Every structure is written in structure tokens, then in C-alpha cells.
Amino acid sequence: MTAFNRFVRASGCAFIFCLSISPAFSIEGIHDDDHASLIKYYEDRANQAAMHLQEHQSQLEKYEAHPYYYGRQGQDFRSHTLANIHEYKKQLNDNLRHAELYRKILSQQQMPINKAKINIEDPASTVR
């Protein structure tokens, strides 16, 4: 058995063990039904991602203004910064999407539902 196969088996067991300990997608300290707290959580994460995104974009602008300051490591710095920018944009979009989803869920829960509403004027909707 190769080292790669041993690693795959060990990491697979570790992954299954982690899934059995805690439910997937749960946030520690926030109940699944507390949608207002989940909205705040995802908005805070989005704000953090936006802050990091802005920081890395300013670093990239500084590099592109003076690439000769960075020497041989400049290209590595540029590619690493671009990768970070891509990742923070992805995190920002995901967190905003989650916050919007929980905002919709919360608004639907607060909306009263009248299941017994029937249009009496319409003969097709009356119960016979």
C-alpha cells in the first residue's frame, strides 16, 4: 500500500468522524431557528471579508505601481495576492447570499398565513 493510499484512508476516516461529532453547517452558539442572529453572523463575516478584500486590493495596487521594489519575489507576491482577492470575493458573495437567504426566511416567518382564506365570489373556489 502506498503512502498516498494510507493518507486517503486516514483522512477519509477523520472526515467521517468529524461529521458524526457535529452537524454540518451549524454555527456554534447560534440556534438554527434564530434567523436574526444568523443574519447578523453572516453580515459580520461579509464585512470582515470586505475589509480583507480591500486590504489585499490596496496591496496589489501598491505592487503594480512599483513592481521593481519587490525583486524576484514580486511575481509570487502578485499571484498570492490575486488568489487571496479571488477567495475573499467568493467568501463575500457566499456570506451575503446566506444573509439574504435568512432574511427571506425571517420575513416569511413574520408574515401571517391565512390558510382558510377563500374567495366566496368565485364559484370554483367554494367547498361543496
What does this structure look like?
The protein is an all-alpha fold and 128 residues long. It has a domain at 33-111. It contains 3 helices and no strands. It has helices at 3-21, 35-65, 74-110. Helix 2 (35-65) runs antiparallel to helix 3 (74-110).
Kindly summarize this structure in a few lines.
The protein is built from 3 helices and no strands. It is an all-alpha fold and 128 residues long.
Oligomer: single chain
Given as residue ranges, the uncertain stretches (5+ residues, pLDDT < 50) are 13-24
Tell the overall outline: elongated
Rg of Cα set:
25 Å
**Structural class computed from helices and strand pairing:** mainly alpha
Characteristic terms for this protein:
128 residues, mainly alpha, 68% helix, elongated
Layout of helices and strands, plus pairs?
Blueprint: H1 3-21, H2 35-65, H3 74-110
